[in-house]
Amino acid sequence: MVTLKELAKQLNVSVSTVSKALHDAKDIGEDTKKRIKEAAELYNYRPNKTALALKVNKTNTIGVVVPDILNPFFAKVLHGIEEFATTKGYDTIICVSHEQLKKEAKSVELMLQGRVDGFIISLSTETLSREDFVHLDQISLNKKGLVLFDRTTSEIDCDKVVINDQKAMYDATRILISKKKTKIAFVSSIEDLPIGLLRKGGYQKALIDHGIEPDPNLELDLTGSSQPHSLIKAFLSLNEFDAVISADNTSSLMFQSIVKSEKPELTDDIMLIGFSDEKNALLSYPRLNYIDQKAMKIGEKAAEMLISRLESKDSTEKPKTFDMPFEIHIA
């Protein structure tokens, strides 16, 4: 593979002429452009992206940090980000924080050194619990774009993509009540997150607004448990309920599976709604009723907002929060 200087020497033209021809500059004749492009192909010339990035101070690369790549929600968000970014000529670099502040901060530090143009991040559990956002401040100090999604914070002034978690749970609980369900259990494995508390609040508010007193005995917290199956089995043996609402996709699938195993006679009687998507709902039996967060669209919107910010000439435009519409699917 030849360099730009070597290619110019081979063609007996200036380095500037070769560069302009390869970028379709108007002041270079069509015959010259054709000759230079054919030679570049013949000698397998590839532009040095690092050198170009240093020259124009732009890499066309987005850094993405997520807490858990094995979570189907984050996997679909990443798909949406990558797909939209590609259509706009941007590459993506993905890091996983594994719910740890230190890993999240290190990922940001490394990508700042690697010269990404901006970041899309969903904050780790530890970052949110400690309320430590110094690494996010560094993004702003380095004049890089930032979009937070799903797990966000009001402490950082940047663009965000969220859903109305409280309203989603409120509306889902209201559907169960409309089906004459009065003993509605709540199960969650994300009560250590702000979104988990918002969802629980939506569930409780819907009950109160419809004249049903929330029963603490019907609220099952699986957060951080090393034996969630045992907790669910104990819950089934101690409580009577006619519906279940889950704050996350993991606990809803676990709960449904254990009900089928431990109390199959309840499978057809208990109505369950969880956070999920069409694919996972189809994989479960009975088919899961679910709140669709539109994960892929969240990814697309986050990438759209970041790229729009990166390419905008208006540096005074205030940060925006986009509220992604959710859908509730009842089988």
UniProtKB/TrEMBL annotation:
GO molecular function, one example? transcription cis-regulatory region binding
Query: Domain HTH lacI-type spans what residues?
Result: 2-56
Asked if the record carries the keyword Transcription regulation, the reply is yes
What keywords were assigned to this record? DNA-binding, Transcription, Transcription regulation
**Highest taxon listed in the record's lineage:** Bacteria
Matching entries from Pfam families are given as: LacI, Peripla_BP_1
Keyword match Mitochondrion: no
- List the PANTHER family hit by this protein, alphabetically: HTH-TYPE TRANSCRIPTIONAL REGULATOR GALS (PTHR30146:SF109), LACI-RELATED TRANSCRIPTIONAL REPRESSOR (PTHR30146)
What is this protein identified as? Transcriptional regulator, LacI family
Q: Which organism is it from?
A: Psychroflexus sediminis
Upper lineage: Bacteria, Pseudomonadati, Bacteroidota, Flavobacteriia, Flavobacteriales
